[in-house]
Specification:
With 330 residues, the chain is of the alpha+beta class. The chain contains four helices and 17 strands. The chain has a seven-stranded antiparallel beta sheet with strand order 11-17-16-15-14-13-12, covered by helices on one side. The chain has a six-stranded antiparallel beta sheet with strand order 1-10-9-4-3-2, with no helix packed on it. The longest helix is centred in the C-terminal third of the chain and has 21 residues. It starts with 7 loop residues before the first strand and ends in a 7-residue tail after the last helix.
Length: 330
């Protein structure tokens, strides 16, 4: 399964402390824990002794201890102590199943199989003129591809986000361009009239969007911000862009966890205000997403109706099919 070779976000870095955390990725039960040096680890949530969950245990002396019989495992996954046999030296076969883990964008990412894949790029991350804030996670009863497709879709703004990202008097869509890229697809010249495109907007305006899908369950939106909100430290106001990333963890084929990472010019508002705005927008999307049937995204373009306004969605479905994605689709 190609999805096992990709990196997936599973937990906010700040949410992993001294207690093991159970998570599910692609239907696999994992445990995340942190050693004394602060390094995070991802293992199968199953002690190889009698199959108990590691997440019921604790971290002791820089090792993860199983809560059933107290077996202790080093960061490498090797068992180092069997309390019932204090003088016993566990062989190499006495070890946990260890997965790759890496931190990026304030999240912990896991890959179940080694490959040449990279964590999806978020170009705005390196721009020091932009403030980064994570929103979520949001637990959604739908597939990861349904979430990405919704993020790509502008024609619902005037109905689902009326008064916020659109209104019913400005729903006609201008033509836009979609092209394949080496990592997915790019949609450019996407225009939408918005009454409140960000926290500080007071008047409606036409907003120019660019969407980039650079991994099966990731989408990046970039947009030109309201010039009145740009601070003095932004000198190239004509070409300046803000960016929002959608990172989706596929828990099961019909259950997903979502983070949204914003790279914004607003350095004044508290995190809570920016997150509250995004919570409102996502809260409007969630019941619609959870109502869709089937919850898995149909890759056969004949299964649902399409128009030219949906060409980014259609391109995304073709990209998933060409990539060999099978998790969360039908």
């Amino acid at each position: 399964m190609i999805e096992r070779t990709l990196w997936h976000p599973v937990l906010a870095s700040a949410d992993l402390a001294n207690t093991p955390v159970a998570i599910i990725l692609l239907g696999h039960e994992l445990v995340l824990w942190k050693d004394a040096q602060g390094a995070a680890h991802a293992w199968a949530d199953r002690c190889p002794h009698r199959g108990a969950k590691f997440s019921l245990g604790r971290v002791v002396n820089d090792r993860l201890e199983c809560g059933y019989h107290g077996w202790q495992f080093a960061a490498s996954g090797q068992c180092t102590l069997v309390p019932a046999l204090p003088t016993f030296t566990p062989p190499a076969s006495h070890c946990a199943t260890v997965y790759e883990l890496h931190g990026a964008y304030g999240l912990l990412w896991v890959r179940l199989e080694k490959s040449e894949s990279a964590i999806p790029a978020f170009a705005a991350e390196s721009d020091t003129r932009l403030r980064k804030v994570n929103c979520g996670p949001y637990l959604v009863q739908t597939s990861a591809p349904r979430l990405v497709e919704n993020f790509l879709d502008m024609s619902h703004f005037g109905f689902v986000h009326e008064g916020w990202l659109g209104d019913r008097e400005h729903v006609a869509m201008e033509n836009y361009e979609v092209q394949k890229t080496a990592t997915g697809l790019l949609a450019t010249n996407c225009q939408a009239w918005q009454p409140k495109s960000n926290l500080h907007s007071t008047t409606g305006s036409m907003v120019d969007y660019t969407y980039e899908v650079n991994a099966p369950y990731t989408c990046i939106l970039t947009k030109a911000p309201d010039p009145s909100t740009l601070g003095a430290h932004i000198t190239d106001k004509d070409n300046f862009r803000e960016s929002i990333a959608l990172f989706v963890c596929p828990i099961t084929p019909e259950l997903s966890r979502v983070w949204i990472r914003m790279a914004m010019t607003d350095f004044d508002s508290p995190d809570s205000a920016l997150q509250s705005f995004q919570n409102t927008i996502f809260g409007q999307d969630q019941p619609v997403l959870e109502s869709q049937s089937p919850k898995r995204l149909p890759l056969d373009l004949r299964a649902e109706l399409h128009t030219v306004a949906d060409k980014a969605s259609s391109a995304y479905r073709r990209y998933l099919q060409e990539s060999g994605i099978t998790f969360g689709v039908c």
